[in-house]
Amino acid sequence: MTAANPYLVARLGGLGTTIFTEMTALAVETGSVNMGQGMPDTDGPQEIMDAVTAAMAAGHNQYPPLPGMPVLRQAVAAHQRRFHALEYDPDSEIQITMGASEALTASVLAFCEAGDEIVMFEPYFDLYAAAGALAAAQRRVVTLRQPDFGFDLDELRAAIGPQTRLLILNTPHNPTGKVFARDELTAIAELCIEHDVIVLSDEVYEHMVFDGRTHTPMATLPGMWDRTVTISSAGKTFSFTGWKIGWACAPAPLIEAIRTVKQNLTFAGGTPFQPAVAHGLGMPDSYFDGLTQEMQAKRDHLSGALQAAGFDVLAPAGTYFVTVDITSIGETDGLAFCRSLPDRCGVVAVPSVVFYDTKAVGAALVRFTFCKRMDVLDEAVARLGRLGGGS
Ligand code: PMP
Ligand code: GLN
């Protein structure tokens, strides 16, 4: 950590540069295979890209309406109905955002007074902590534990109290690849109802759930539609992470509060991307099934190779990511391991410890992404195979 920046407010002082920025810069600098940042190396469907250029040519280049273009809000509503049997009114219950990131940050800023508590599971996607810090809220973490990343219900019960305003849930879960089971979600839901807690449900990996499992949106559980903000993004579902088109679905008063913040963060943008993403959301089941199959094959390929290279692989049920425990190869410090990996074998990965408050629990865990071409995965694995020789 560098010395504190005197210009940065104290409550943001601990944030520094995100691990994704650090590791992607390291990959570029060292010419390493970047298995760190969850960023596909292949573009999404050509027909969606064509829809962007068509939208530009048709003059969709100025500010869109603050809630998002009607065509996209209608497409999000249709998607939620089609895949999850969830009903949202496109006008009052859906907000288009600059990626899932803005939906998350705007929600936290909208709902939390300074000092309010936000409960989240660790390891957690780093933005949750940053959004909490922006709002001057307090973070309470509940640890997901190996090997299946389950949680202790008593620990969750103890974390939720009178100051709890929000619980942030992420399923399928980055970085572990855990897909929360219905009974786990039910237990979480019961506590949130009992304590009148709003749930931010980050479901950006909703279409990356493997081995025939199903993704259960929190809003589908009894009593939860009323208190859940469901967040997703075109970045993952269509492999266009740089477009930053996301959305939040929730009851009207919650959306209104989010919108109030969002209009003062970025107002509204991404105009030509919005009708293109609307087109994508309407693509046939074969597209969504194909994405799942492709990611599952990549998961299998990378997991098998990592196992063969001696890593203890914690098999993911969803997402872009596989986690390994490096104690199986005689290492204990994931951060030092990841910082040395480019020199040792020309590969970049992410140390999962950065996603933990309880550092000891995540110290030896390392996350690799498999949202890469098969030949890139092969190259990464060949390089990792040389690790044992210390070359
Ligand atoms: N949530 C999770 C769990 C993520 O992994 C990401 C990564 N991009 C985001 C939110 C942010 O999504 P977006 O790029 O759409 O802002
Ligand atoms: N969600 C991606 C990851 O976890 C990238 C996030 C980012 O770069 N901010 O790797």
Short summary:
The chain is an alpha/beta fold and 391 residues long. It has helices at residues 19-30, 46-57, 70-84, 99-111, 126-134, 153-159, 182-194, 234-237, 252-265, 273-281, 285-308, 334-345, 359-362, 374-385, and strands spanning 33-34, 94-98, 117-122, 138-143, 164-170, 198-202, 228-233, 245-249, 312-314, 321-325, 347-348, 350-351, 365-369. 41% of the residues lie in helices and 15% in strands.
Order of strands, widest sheet: 2-8-7-6-5-3-4
How many structural units, i.e. domains? 2
Q: Note the total helix count.
A: 14
CATH class placement of the largest domain: Alpha Beta
* CATH architecture descriptor name of the largest domain: 3-Layer(aba) Sandwich
| Overall number of strands | 13
Distance between the termini: 29 Å
* Beta content: 15-25%
Largest sheet, strands/sense/barrel: 7 strands, mixed
- The CATH topology name of the largest domain reads Aspartate Aminotransferase, domain 2
The backbone outline, from C-alpha atoms, is: globular
Distinct compounds present:
4'-deoxy-4'-aminopyridoxal-5'-phosphate, glutamine
Radius of gyration: 20 Å
What is the element string, with H for helices and E for strands?
A: HEHHEHEHEHEHEEHEHHHEEHEEHEH
Structural class: alpha/beta
Helicity level: 40-55%
Give the rounded overall mean pLDDT.
95
Question: Uncertain spans, ≥5 residues at pLDDT below 50?
Answer: none
| CATH homologous superfamily annotation of the largest domain | Type I PLP-dependent aspartate aminotransferase-like (Major domain)
